[in-house]
Structures are given as structure tokens and as C-alpha cells.
Amino acid sequence: MIINRSTSETNRIQSKRMKNIIIIITCLAIAACRQDVQKSDKTTRPVVDGVESAFRMEILEDEGLKVIDPETPIKVMADGFTWVEGPLWIDEEGGYLLFSDIPNNTVFRLDRDGVVTTFLKPSGYSGVEPYGNEPGSNGLLLNTEGQLVLMQHGDRRVAKMDAPLSTPVEKYVTLAHKYEGRKLNSPNDGVYDKEGNLYFTDPPYGLPKNMDDPGKELDFQGVYCLLKNGDLLLVDSLSRPNGITLSPDERYLYVAVSDPTHSVWYQYEIKTAGEAINKKIFHDVTYLVGKPGQQGAPDGLKINEAGYVFATGPGGIWVFNLSGTPIARIHTGQRTSNCALTTDEKTLYMTADDYVLSVKLL
Fold it and tell me: What DSSP assignment string belongs to 85-103?
């Protein structure tokens, strides 16, 4: 059957169809917008909400109450980095924290008011070609002259910044880069004694292929002492030496081992500068590695003047007395890499994955 329509009727039908199409398109657009809003709400919700839900204090011994109040909150001071390490408190210009973002080859500065600025870039690798996943600086410390010293992964050396802290410049002077003619692996963390001798660790973590890197020249991972006269002494070799510190009286040296099959902290007696004896396990947490809520392994550590050890390890921060007894834990819910005390030792800063955290101490 052939239907003949007038021109006006045809126009009316086409107009109606067009209106229906517009309505359908509009509905689809509204639905899409609603979906986008839902996605946006989900992705822009503050990440710290989830992070803070894992924060908690745990007092293991009454002695722990001398160090920390179990009701003290853990605070997120900064976030949005990749993998932060090497926190160092600087007691100048009102006080500020320096820390490394190793994958981004950068040292950042965090002021008391929460403002974060770039302090050094590059911080650990001066080359042009890409260099592994962790090219930047790791541990940061001050020498006895108050100069900034960096453990540089990519350049495989211990170096000092050739500029004052007040006017930082990416110009470095090599302090140590070879042992007996062979390149170091990737210096990680260090501590100076009062005489100016530097103890530091040299695991393979900064090498592009870690233990299997073809550029690895040493067949061991060392704990060293760079004497103030420039001589480099091998103190010990460990599977994965990491964090390192000295007791307040400098009679004992502590070294963290981040080997998942042997996650421990060692204690040594210092006989003379660069010579350690009577090595023993200070504490062993191998049994916790890989368990839920126990992210991380022994890493950076610090000791306060009262002799309490703050050590990053499975689950966050472990607080020990000098007998090796854990007296408290600070659970961060993140792989916690290192920590730093303020000069008055009333605040502990922690680098945990891509966060910088802080907690008040007693």
C-alpha cells in the first residue's frame, strides 16, 4: 500500500522524530555525566581516609608508656610521592624536614606549616639515560661540619652537597665510591660518630637489576666505615644490610637486615673506629614477613638520647629498649622505610611508602 502524505504532515513527523532523538541523546548524556561524577567522586576522595584507618599504637611493655602516649594520633604530613626515604630533621629556619623520593631522583623539603618544595633534583643520579627504578638519593645525614651528605643510588657513591643548606645546589663532592678498586653497589644509609667517622651500608637495591645487575662489581653487600682520614674499611658483609645507627655512647653499632629470609637487626660492639666485634642478633622478625598487616622489613632506624631504638620493620615502627625487648609499636599500615627525630626528640617523622607521617613522643 502506498501512503501519500502532505508536505506539512511529513514535516510534522520529521520534527517529532527529531525531538525524540534529542530527548534520547539528552538522557544518555545525563546518564554519562552521572557515571562520570560517580567515578570522579571515587577517585578524588582523599586517600588519607583509608591510610589513617590503619594507624594505631600498641604498648607491649609498661616501659613503652615512657616513650609514647597510646592515644597520640599519627598525622599525615605530606603525600603524593612515589617511594620516600632518608628523612633528616634540620634545626634551622624554624626547623624543616628533608627526605628523598628515590624513584623521582629528588630531595624534598617539608616545612613545619606543611609546605613541600623541591630541595635538590637530581639528588642521586647525574646521568642522562634512564637508570633503573631507584636512581635517586636514599639516606640523608649531616657531617660534623653540618654539611649535607647523601647516599646516592644511581651514582653509586657517598657524596656531600657542595653548598650550604640555606642555598642548596646540585653540586656534589664524592666521599666514597669504590672499595679496593671496585665500585660500590648503591649506598643506602649512614651514621656519623662524634669523631667524624662515617658508618654506612651498601646493599644492591639501587642497581637496575639488583643482585643480578651486570654492573655489580662487588660479590658481597658491605657495612663500611669511612674514616675521617679518607680510608674505607669493611666492617662486615651481610645479605641485605640496610638501616644503621649508633648507641648514644657510641659503644654499639646497630644494622638492619632487610632480607625476607633473615629479617633481623644486628648489634655490634665498637672496638675501635671501623672495627666491630661481638656481633649478635638484637631482634628477629623473620616470622612476621609477608603476614597480613605486617608490610615491610627491617629498614631505617634511630636511637634517642635515652637509649630507645625506633626501627622501621614489619607493620611500621618498632620501639626497643637497649636489651632488644620491643616495648611499643607504631602501626602505619604501610611499608615504612625510615624515621627521623627532631632535635628535641619530641616528634618522630616517618617515611612510609609515598607518605610522610609524624607522631608526638613523650
Answer: EEEEEE-STT-EEEEEETT
